[in-house]
Amino acid sequence: MTRSGTTPPLSSAVILASAGRPALLAQAMAHVEHQSMVPRERILSVPEASSLPASTAGWTVVTGTTGLAAQRNAGLDALASDADVVVFFDDDAVPRADYLAQALSAFARWPDLVGLTGRVLLDGAAHSSGEVSVATADATLARSWEEAPVGVRHPRRTLYGCNFAYRLAAAPTLRFDARLPLYSWLEDHDFARRLMRHGALAAVDDCVVVHRGADSGGRTNHVRLGYSQLMNPVHLARSGSFPAWLAGWEIARPTAKNLAYAVAGAQSPWRRERLRGNLMGLADALRGRDTPERIVEL
Questions:
Q1: Where are the beta strands (DSSP E) in the chain?
Q2: Is pTM beyond 0.85 here?
Q3: Cα–Cα distance, 108 to 95 (Å, whole number)
């Protein structure tokens, strides 16, 4: 409490993890810099300097780690402030300018809330229509201002990795599973499962964002990703993060999709590669192996 008897507003720190996409990262930085509520701390976590845009003024830069989970951990380890809330955005997420203000308002309104994810208006990563253009993202967010804030939250057991925030004091030592390398498949779900032991998770309608699902320029190794789709849930079940039913669901869902689309169609070449990775992961799992790190060798 301050001398006037009012509670001081909550503060935030924003972490952006990116690799090999400096132009996209520059756009993500601009979205954070244009927020109506300025974060106390802004951190970039990249493998090497070549992943950075020309200017990083006002940002703390962390280099030397590769893989989404490891890079997000490096960002957390670099926190220098006592910010109340840590926010993660993907480099292709476009948060509305009031995202941080609405997130901090939600954490202040609901003391039991330890983690939140926003309302994704468009998601280029989740639909066959593909990447959302910058113009479409901007127009969609502009229209969303016509909606009045509703102050509504929806209970969740997951946090969508493209945009989520958590109350740092609730789990100050919590980190992402560093054994999930490169794409770190399910790192956000695992983090959420362990965070929810400390309080409630929710999707908050007033935290509005577009996930562009930007193309990685053909850099995706589909055999590696397919292996992770099988082995990572196995590892998370064995580590105690996932119950067996959840691991089974997370295996069945992408594997079934790979199998269905591998037969014919435009997706069939890379779906077959993912399916091959699925089968390699299944073979290792049946041998009793717990080796999510193996993808770096594939």
A1: 12-17, 41-45, 60-62, 85-89, 93-95, 113-123, 153-155, 163-167, 200-211
A2: yes
A3: 20
